[in-house]
Design goal:
It is a single chain. The chain contains nine helices and nine strands. By secondary structure, the chain is of the alpha/beta class. It has a single domain, classed as Alpha-Beta Complex (Spore Coat Polysaccharide Biosynthesis Protein SpsA, Chain A), CATH 3.90.550. Strands 1, 2, 3, 4, 5, 6, 7, 8 and 9 form a nine-stranded mixed sheet that branches. Strand 1, helix 2 and strand 2 form a beta-alpha-beta unit. The longest helix has 19 residues. It is globular and about 50 Å long. 36% of the residues are buried.
């Protein structure tokens, strides 16, 4: 395919104790109709069999970065530091990509004056938890606009302009990062196609309930915008 020769996509996949899911996440990246240039899997100090699962995928394009546990933001930053592609994508270790995710988003970048491209996502109950979670967690029946890391494809220069993820946040790090992207007025687009599936398994950080990190994200966003307003930005 012609697109493979003109774009280099780096995929950053952080993982912490997701031995039961990370293999499927990697497989969904390897199965892309437009293959990525490199897949950087960052093992964030897993204590389960995640690393053993990752190491079963012996591919020239797959690189494993090991680090002490520091949280998903720090893990993404570690991946970004070694990424060499022109475009950057993220996938969480419990999510899955649709086969044409990268191809659809590259075409959207080519045909629109945007820096960040998202897509829609479909939620699903993880099969091994479906019975016990069905009555307690509501899963959307239809695809939703997916403003999450796993649905993003971004130009490298945009990622560098936004800067690293806030490594002090254990949850809400992508919300904070996107807040800085909005403050920079970086053009974004949500394509109508479903590009990813978000696995609901009960341990998702978005289901963790109220967390002081989310309050910190809100406060830092408001403070940043007040400073911009005060300086006429």
């Amino acid at each position: 395919m012609a697109l493979e020769r003109v774009v280099r996509i780096s995929v950053v996949l952080p993982v912490y104790n997701r031995a039961g899911y990370v293999g499927e996440a990697i497989e969904s990246v390897l199965a892309q109709s437009l293959p990525p240039y490199e897949i950087i899997v960052v093992d964030d100090g897993s204590t389960d069999d995640s690393l053993a699962v990752i190491e079963r995928f012996a591919r020239p394009c797959l690189r494993v970065v090991r680090r002490e546990n520091g949280g998903i933001g720090a893990a993404r930053n570690s991946g970004l530091r070694v990424a060499s592609g022109d475009l950057i994508a993220f996938i969480d270790s419990d999510d899955l990509w649709e086969r044409d995710k990268l191809e659809l988003q590259v075409r959207a970048l080519e045909n629109n004056d945007v820096q960040l491209v998202f897509g829609h996502l479909l939620e699903f109950l993880s099969p091994e938890r479906a019975a016990d979670l069905a009555g307690s967690i509501r899963v959307a029946a239809n695809p939703l606009p997916g403003l999450i890391a796993s649905t993003l494809l971004a130009r490298r220069e945009a990622v560098e302009k936004i800067g690293p993820f806030d490594a002090s946040l254990r949850v809400g790090e992508f919300i904070e990062w996107m807040g800085r992207a909005r403050d920079l007025d970086l053009a974004s687009l949500v394509i109508p196609e479903t590009v990813a599936r978000r696995r609901i398994h009960g341990g998702n950080s978005v289901l963790a309930g109220a967390n002081t990190d989310y309050l910190r994200v809100i406060k830092s966003t408001l403070d940043r915008r007040r400073r911009r307003a005060a300086h006429g930005g």
